[in-house]
Design goal:
With about 300 residues, the protein is α/β, with parallel strands linked by helices. Helices cover about 35% and strands about 25% of the residues. It contains eleven helices and 14 strands. Strands 1, 4, 5, 6, 9, 10, 11, 12, 13 and 14 form a ten-stranded mixed β-sheet that branches. A four-stranded mixed β-sheet has the order 3-2-7-8. It is globular. Bound molecules: adenosine monophosphate. The site of adenosine monophosphate has 16 residues, from strand 2 and helix 8.
Length: about 300
């Protein structure tokens, strides 16, 4: 089934305690789209500026991503983000963010994409998320991501987004900021009252928890030995999860659990290298092999 994503595509500079990668391809939508493309073809709606390096477009074409909705806007500048990780690699500071073209009008959605059934609103300004959501009133599943910046600066708009989506994916510090509750199950239930049917709260190396009205399901992270750049872990988790759901069309709780496991596995690969470097060498067989290992690891009786 068809899957569409909107969010940021931009130029990232990332520093970890041991290495750095300056001016590389990044952005919430491209991490999501590359991850989901291992499961199903992905429609990308995004805008970059005139200064977007040509090499980025060559990278986009290496994945099963439909680029008809990717606009390169003349006279505009590409979104830029610079982040620096702390010693433990769980926390990071944003050194600089330049929204640039993300503050301008949204790129148009190709007419032939109007029947898309699965919609992911990757992290970007909630106004852009709302605009895309409204163009898919009959979508089967609409899931969004957000971040602390929007919780602080665009609370009312974000509440409107929450009121018209089926699922929310966010990390534990964001769920605490949104609800005032540190306990992820309680925070998850409070978020359900804001609109979504389910919420997935990610806890970095401590895994994730899905909360809906009947369940609280917890999965650990894949025990990764190689963590070189956590950037995009959340987006690639969401890509693996939504990619599996869209590929199967099954939204049962069992399918959700499996989708979370696929998301966990894809994210564990993404963090092995900077930017999309690991995604470029990844294939479905490697994903399935690690998925098998993850399932065996979780078998208790
Ligand atoms: P994650 O590590 O999953 O939080 O995603 C990191 C990606 O999000 C980076 O590639 C950034 O370019 C992108 N990003 C950071 N801040 C923003 C923002 N304010 N709006 C949209 N995308 C952002």
């Amino acid at each position: 089934m068809s899957l569409i994503v909107t969010g940021s595509v931009g130029i990232d500079s990332v520093e970890t305690p041991t290495a750095k990668a300056m001016e590389v391809l990044g952005g919430s939508a491209i991490y999501f789209a590359s991850a989901a493309s291992f499961f199903t073809s992905v429609r990308l709606v995004a805008v970059v500026g005139e200064d977007c390096p040509q090499g980025f477009f060559d990278t986009f074409r290496k994945f099963d991503i439909d680029l008809e909705g990717l606009e390169q806007r003349k006279g505009s500048k590409t979104f830029r983000w610079h982040g620096k990780y702390h010693e433990n690699m769980n926390d990071r500071d944003t050194i600089e963010v330049q929204p640039n073209v993300l503050e301008e009008s949204q790129p148009p959605v190709p007419e032939t994409w109007r029947n898309t059934e699965y919609v992911f609103l990757a992290n970007t300004h909630p106004a852009g998320q709302l605009e895309l959501r409204e163009q898919f009133p009959d979508a089967k599943l609409v899931v969004a991501d957000t971040m602390n910046l929007w919780i602080k600066t665009e609370h009312d708009l974000l509440m409107r987004v929450l009121g018209c989506i089926h699922g929310l994916v966010l990390n534990d510090s964001e769920s605490e900021m949104l609800t005032g509750d540190r306990n992820v199950v309680i925070a998850g239930r409070k978020i359900l009252e804001m609109g979504p049917r389910f919420v997935v709260i990610k806890k970095g190396e401590h895994g994730c928890v899905l909360v809906d009205k009947d369940h609280a399901i917890s999965l650990p992270a894949f025990p990764a030995a190689e963590v070189n750049d956590p950037t995009g872990a959340g987006d690639s988790f969401a890509g693996g999860m939504m990619g599996h759901l869209a590929a199967t069309g099954d939204l049962s709780i069992e399918a959700m659990r499996k989708a979370m496991a696929y998301g966990t596995v894809v994210a564990s690969y993404n963090i092995e290298a900077f930017s999309l470097e690991r995604m470029l060498t990844l294939d479905r067989a490697q994903i399935d092999a690690r998925f098998g290992e993850f399932c065996s690891m979780l078998r208790i009786v």
